[in-house]
Amino acid sequence: MVYGIVSRRPSPSHDQLNMAEDGERVDGINTSESGMSLKKVLSGASPLSLKIIAECPVTKARACDLALPHSTVSTPVFMPVGTQGTLKGITVDQLESLGCQICLGNTYHLGMRPGPDLIEKANGLHGFMNWKRNLLTDSGGFQMVSLVELSKVTEEGVQFKSPYDGKEILLTPERSIDIQNSLGSDIMMQLDDVVSSTVKGPRVEEAMHRSIRWLDRCIKANKNPNKQNLFAIIQGGLDAELRKACLDEMTKRDVPGFAIGGLSGGEEKDDFWRMVTLSTDHLPREKPRYLMGVGYAVDLVVCVALGCDMFDCVFPTRTARFGSALVPWGSLQVKQKQYAKDFQPIDPDCQCPTCKNHSRAFLHALFKSDTAAMHHITIHNISYQLTLMRSVRQSIVEGRFPEFIRTFMKRMFPSREQYPGWAVEALASVNVVLE
Ligand SMILES: [Zn+2]
Question: Hey, which of 63, 136, 233, 428 would disulfide with 259, CB 3.0 to 4.6 Å?
């Protein structure tokens, strides 16, 4: 089934966006095999529109055009994570030439250094980075899970000591949105009360209810609802009842999109996928679904099948700095001796600048003496993630996603016995049986 929702055409700049007419609606393009078409409209006038291009007739996967203030993003999409306005090991120009349409800015770090006032003066994070496409900023809350020994959560907000100068800082929902308004991101995330996914008991329920209250405070605090999209974050830990309660409550709010939070924190994969699929079952079809903190290739493919549209993770860039290159058969450790005289590129089928220009032997030698090797591998890894998601999308549009999954798994694992049990079960739940 296919339908389109466009409340506003994509426009290349904020200025043009402001001139665009609210509520402009056009019919969807029907490219699916099933051939059914229906119209549905989005309420409200958020600076976002989601057009569903195709839905997989077997799984819950969908391919969409997500129109945001700076450009249209083809989903499913992987969003690379930048810190302090730059991606480690890659420039903005390179990111653009790899076809990246949206990346993440890190609010916690940017809010500390250089600070939101300076960035506002530079015409927001877009101007500061000189990045013309879309940006998503986090609330700053996630970093506090890793700084938990420094932080204290109250109803007012999260109190913590600055790791830069030791000053006491209170991050409230209002302050988080204020910083994100200064950064000018296309998508802002609500401040949520984050508990580690391995925590159990009453703290999980408390955090879930507080996240709902904080969502309302964030909605109220947003000074730019016509320019910046605020996403809610579904919490509830690994408890199906709590997650369902959070979904019921948050989906009553007319926010432009929803994130699935509180996962990918070391929980059992079996719990992980069940929470993901429960969430997508109850999220509105006409709004984007962002699964936070997911970036392993297998997880991406499975979670697209479970109905997620957007993903982010530091993994591909972090692992590149250790010399690990992502390939369709897993990963390739450039530092290993066996590559010292290997004149093939990392992946002979990869079209990235690293694979076009450099051999495994060159990267192996370079890794010993120069950080440029990390840079080359970072480019390759981001290209791998973006290319993987483009292939996933293409297969959904062409109605052959289940076949794509089978081929992908065969290439990733040497034998059927090595398929992760959780992935087999998760895929079976959406009617994909791996032979
Ligand atoms: Zn490559």
Answer: 233
Q: What are the residue ranges of helices labelled H in 314-359?
A: 315-320, 353-357
Told to judge if 347 belongs to the known catalytic residues of this protein, a careful annotator would answer no
Residue 196: band (very low, low, confident or very high) from pLDDT cuts 50, 70, 90: confident
Whole-Å CA distances, 57 to 36, 86, 286, 303: 11, 39, 17, 16
List pLDDT tens digits, range 291-301: 999 999 999 99
CA of 349 to the centre of ligand 1 (A): 8
- Report DSSP state, residue 418: G
* Of 246, 225, 213, nearest in space to 48 by CA: 225
User: pLDDT-based confidence at 146, cuts 50/70/90?
Assistant: low
Distance between CA 2 and CA 142 in Å, rounded? 35
Q: How many CA atoms lie within 13 A of 61 on its CB side?
A: 34
Q: In what order do the strands lie in the sheet with 187-189?
A: 77-80, 310-313, 289-291, 257-260, 229-234, 187-189, 134-137, 102-105
Q: Report helix, strand or coil for 208.
A: helix
Distance from C-alpha of 38 to C-alpha of 28, rounded to nearest angstrom = 8
The chain-wide mean pLDDT, for the chain, equals: 86
342: annotated active-site residue: no
Percent of the chain at pLDDT > 70 equals 84
Residues 6+ apart with CB under 8 A from 146: none
DSSP assignment, residue 82? P
In angstroms, the CA 88 to CA 321 distance is 9
Residue 382 in tokens: 């981001």
Ligand 1 center from residue 299 Cα (angstroms): 21
Was 140 annotated as part of a binding site? yes
**Residues facing 332 on adjacent strands:** 325
CA neighbor of 260 nearest in space, from 282, 240, 234? 234
Radius of gyration for the chain, computed over Cα atoms and rounded to the nearest angstrom = 21
Q: Is 246 annotated as a binding residue?
A: no
* pLDDT tens column, 217-240: 999 999 999 999 999 999 999 999
How many angstroms does the Cα of residue 393 sit away from the middle of ligand 1?
Answer: 20
Q: Is 142 annotated as a binding residue?
A: yes
Locate 167 and state its tokens. 């000053």
Give distance in angstroms: CA of 356 to centre of ligand 1: 7
Position 90 scores a pLDDT of 82
DSSP3 helix / strand / coil % (the chain, rounded to 5): 40, 20, 40
pLDDT at res. 89: 67
Cα 370 to its chain centre, rounded Å, is: 31
